[in-house]
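STRUCTURE:
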């Protein structure tokens, strides 16, 4: 997968659970706390899960595209290179020696250095510290997020140059998300169209191409997945890669539901119900003690057979979080 959007941490764990057989919420949480999975701002200006060996080259490749997107607020808040240097130095000093500190603890560290952290300044200071390769996620403390030093959390990075990094990211994307277009890859990666095109050219010998409705789709060799697996139902989390990894998402919806979808939901921000490759509605969970209730809302009517598969998908989610489905 390369990277998976993890803006909503709780549901991002489910995105991993959907793709790994037998994995529970606690397994993903432990992997995150142990540093087997890291969380940082990369690709686009939002959180992503990445592997420790990939985090440095991904940041180096995509940070130059993210930083300009922060420029307007940086000017608004009086943040410049001098301030970022002071902030990075203070953060590195506070975290050295394997320490992991919460956001509030690091906010206090910066305030003691007379670095303003009001409004969105603190958020921008921490994002820049991530993009500068100073910090990344640490283990959670009583459900609170912490930061740790990147070189301590990921001591054995994959060392590749920019050209190799571009080829690597391109390959990861189309292997895990193809068929997809250049526009899809540029959107997901945050790279320019020129770099996206260059990446595909570098990997062309490994890709196949098909033109559908005037659009070029790239993908790797035919998948060994059996056809019966394509007729399945999933409760997708918000920001799931099945949706967010593509610029054009129109193929995910039945056209007859377009009006309802435009009024009632945004597939990126909502948990979505996927039936046989198409989005058929949204869902949300209500957890009470040892039980979980799954509430569904469909774009249109579903057959009894499809409703049964939704119930089975709900049971899988309950098993993932270790709750009794009510």
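SEQUENCE:
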């Amino acid at each position: 997968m390369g990277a998976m959007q993890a803006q909503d941490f709780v549901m991002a764990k489910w995105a991993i659970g959907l793709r790994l057989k037998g994995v529970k919420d606690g397994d993903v949480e432990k992997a995150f706390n142990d540093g087997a999975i890291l969380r940082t701002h990369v690709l686009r200006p939002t959180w992503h899960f990445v592997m420790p060996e990939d985090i440095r080259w991904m940041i180096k490749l995509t940070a130059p595209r993210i930083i300009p997107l922060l420029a307007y607020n940086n000017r608004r808040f009086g943040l410049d290179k001098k301030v970022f240097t002071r902030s990075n130095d203070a953060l590195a000093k506070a975290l050295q020696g394997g320490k992991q500190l919460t956001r509030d603890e690091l906010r206090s560290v910066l305030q003691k250095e007379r670095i303003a952290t009001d409004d969105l300044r603190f958020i921008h200071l921490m994002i820049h510290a991530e993009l500068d390769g100073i910090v990344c996620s640490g283990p959670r403390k009583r459900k609170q997020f912490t930061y740790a030093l990147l070189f301590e959390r990921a001591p054995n990075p994959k060392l590749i140059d920019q050209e190799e990094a571009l080829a690597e990211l391109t390959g990861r994307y189309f292997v895990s998300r193809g068929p997809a277009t250049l526009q899809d890859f540029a959107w997901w990666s945050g790279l320019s169209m020129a770099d996206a095109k260059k990446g595909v050219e570098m990997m062309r010998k490994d890709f196949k191409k098909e033109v559908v409705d005037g659009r070029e789709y790239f993908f790797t060799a035919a998948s060994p997945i059996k056809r019966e697996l394509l007729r399945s139902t999933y409760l997708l989390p918000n920001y799931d890669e099945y949706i967010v990894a593509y610029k054009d998402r129109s193929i995910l919806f039945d056209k007859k539901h377009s009006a309802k979808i435009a009024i009632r939901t945004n597939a990126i921000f909502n948990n979505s119900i996927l039936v046989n490759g198409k989005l058929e509605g949204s869902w949300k969970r209500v957890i009470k003690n040892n039980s979980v209730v799954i509430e569904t809302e469909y774009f249109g009517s579903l057959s009894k057979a499809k409703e049964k598969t939704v119930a089975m998908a709900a049971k899988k989610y309950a098993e993932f979080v270790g709750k009794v489905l009510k």
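REMARK: The first strand starts at residue 4 and ends at 5.
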